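From the pipeline queue, job 12 of 40. The input is one protein chain; the requested action is below.

Action: predict structure.
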Amino acid sequence: MDATTFDLSTLFQNIGHILSYDPQNPLLFNSGLFWVLFLFFLPIYGLLKSRRTQMMIFVVAFSLYFFYKSSGLFFLLLVATSVIDWFIAKQISQEPTVKMKRFWLTLSIVLSVGILCFFKYSDAVVTSLNDLLHNNFQPLDLVLPLGISFYTFKTISYVVDVYKEKIKPADNWLDYIFYLSFFPALAMGPIVRASHFLPQLRENKPPTKNMVYSGFWLALVGVIKKAVFADYFGQYTMIAFGNAAGYSGFELAMAVLGFGLQIYCDFSGYSDMAIGMGRMMGFDLGINFDFPYRSQNVTEFWRRWHISLSSWLKDYVYIPLGGNRKGKPRQHFNLMVTMLIGGLWHGETLNFLAWGGVHGVALCLHKLTKKPLDAVLPSDNALVKFFCWLITFVFACFTMMMLGVDSFETVWTVVSKSFTDFDLAYLVPFFTARKMWCYLIIIIFALHFVPKKIYEMISTLFVKSPWIVKLLVFIIVVQLVIQFSSAEVQPFIYGQF
């Protein structure tokens, strides 16, 4: 064997290793490999765009490969789900009786929710049984398949909407698996409704120049949010929450603030990347975040935070339970049930359930006090607005912290020390030790309050700028990511949910 043959063999082995599933390094939007693959994907997609069937096969293949690189053979679970629910939706549309339609709907929901619960909650159930029965059942140690929480909600909404005759079932299975597996929105949403997505797929309009470049700009913004701000904030919050008892109340309060901004940058950054890539491909995925930390009450917060989830919970849980149509007590009950389900959707531990419950209580309190407070407090008073915003912001940050710690005991430690051991004497030493962290907190916090029209203007300028400017912006973003990146690619927080 000559040296050339050996080198080629080694090269092919290395390429095969890179392109195969590695459970220690799942493919993420913020990894270099993904963007290399995406750069190869785009021109081929552009060539196939006008040939609808070929384009769809190519995108589905790429989406399933992305799933495989992220979760291994669990991509087959998505394929099986798509086959079952496409068939069930067809059956629902063809059944002549309501009874049979309900049977197929119930079967679909039970299967979808059952599979989701099996993967998300089976280990928690085993642990609880061990505690209750003093047994030693072995947990299954299941790996959570990529995006299962998100695509489960997508398939439930699809089947329910077909049942309610809000939409017609997908023309064929290829249309449906294209919708369900569409890689920009596969891992962490947005939870795009079939009623919004399938008509765009049927029209198959080519992306305009404005869509391509505004999508590119949005994706770059998302990369900065995630790889620069969120990951840098996490370097401190992870340490502080990991040893909460060893930090002062001031330091823990800063960690709470940091995590509140970290989870926003992390998840809204992912959403920006997903929506931007979808736009570059000619698809509108809506919006998922609308500057939630500007909110002046918790109801407004949930209209701005994770919009696709909150609207899904409203349409498929809250309203079917009765919404606000059956009196105040029932409305509050419906709110609590909806938010508890939202909490359990995020995770199986007490932290998540308590997070959903606390937000449910806050929503109920806002509904109860809104009218009497509006009657006595001037809505246009700047001071009133400021205190309403401050209370909402502090509440949001402290409750978001519940999603970032490992136990309810840590939650209590962080909250109690933040309010009983808060000493501004730590301010100067903290700033001296973590100047860059503080600067980035101030920057992202300030950017949150920049008027939206300014962002729209900047996006328009980028779209209209010459290619050399676009390239320069891209190089700057890459350099920022390199400068602020840690040793390993950091996973997305919502990838755990």
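Job complete. The chain has a mean pLDDT of 88.
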